[in-house]
Design goal:
Length: 296
């Protein structure tokens, strides 16, 4: 067992514990998941329409399709917009309720804590936990879950369509999956570490501000303005460095994944031009539809 295994197991147990707070709101959550399923089911429709139009040279023998296809595209995106709005609204409602419940439970806990705890921990740290940490828990319990469910359903829908178009090209496309997953895992680890550092710096800033406001008379009497100024400067500088460490992997994530995806597109284009694959490369519409579905 690796050294990271206990930490991974602990994070998994903590995440499932956080999901327990979603249980009282399972009805709106189920509706949100249903909306995600319907949204994912519409993903392959637009590439399929483009395939039909390109294969037929934007010509059709049925005059009704002249207005039916544009109207269908409009209705498709209208439906996706409504589903996306409903899903986001429901998940936002759930996340706000989660933050409300967590803050109320945490405040009740603070009211019953022994006096010694308030001597050992600064008020700024407790306030930071009550205000900022609950938002982090909310993101872990809802945003990550939404992304996992929605993207997984979208991948399944598009993968089925890609297999329908050309299974050989689909297999080539799947080869980049592990590489992208490895890149995301490594960069996400750095982002989490930098994020933890930035929150610690933020707590230190809150503590310094609290001391300065509560003991402002003492600071003026003993001439401690310069000391507090330097201390706050160090806290803000630490926060700036933490944010920049977080910005590096966050900014590099999209370009790197796009580069890896471009490598797959280049390989698929080469195979399509060399006519070594099946039906997706047999027509311009099939090839463009395949690329469009792969990049969605």
């Amino acid at each position: 067992m690796t050294q990271n295994s206990p930490a991974i197991a602990s994070n998994r147990a903590l995440y499932f514990r956080l999901l327990g707070y979603v249980r009282p709101y399972w009805k709106p959550f189920a509706l949100a998941v249903l909306g995600m399923v319907c949204t994912a089911a519409t993903e392959p429709v637009f590439p399929a329409i483009m395939k039909y139009l390109l294969d037929n040279g934007f010509k059709t023998g049925d005059s009704r399709l002249v207005w039916a296809i544009p109207l269908g595209i409009l209705l498709l995106f209208l439906l996706r917009g409504v589903l996306s709005f409903c899903t986001n609204y429901l998940m936002t409602w759930i996340s706000i309720r989660l933050v409300l419940d967590l803050r109320r439970q945490l405040f009740d806990k603070i009211l019953t804590m022994p006096t010694q705890t308030f001597h050992e921990q600064s008020a700024g740290k407790l306030i930071s936990r009550l205000i900022y940490d609950t938002d982090n828990v909310n993101q872990a319990a809802t945003n990550v879950l939404v992304t996992a469910v929605r993207e997984s359903l979208t991948v399944v829908a598009l993968l089925c369509y890609l297999l329908y178009l050309d299974w050989k090209l689909t297999v080539i496309t799947l080869t980049i999956g592990p590489l992208i997953a490895f890149i995301i895992k490594q960069l996400s680890r750095r982002i989490r570490a930098a994020s933890r550092s930035s929150f610690e710096a933020l707590r230190a800033m809150s503590h310094t501000i609290e001391e300065t406001t509560d003991a402002n008379k003492v600071i003026k009497i003993f001439g401690g303005q310069q000391q507090q100024r330097e201390r706050f400067f160090q806290d803000t500088e630490r926060f700036r460095r933490s944010m920049m460490r977080e910005a590096v992997p966050a900014s590099a994530l999209t370009p790197i994944t796009h580069l890896v995806a471009a490598m797959a597109v280049a390989a698929i284009t080469y195979l399509a031009l060399s006519q070594t694959t099946g039906q997706a490369s047999a027509s311009a519409g099939g090839f463009v539809s395949f690329i469009a579905a792969m990049l969605l």
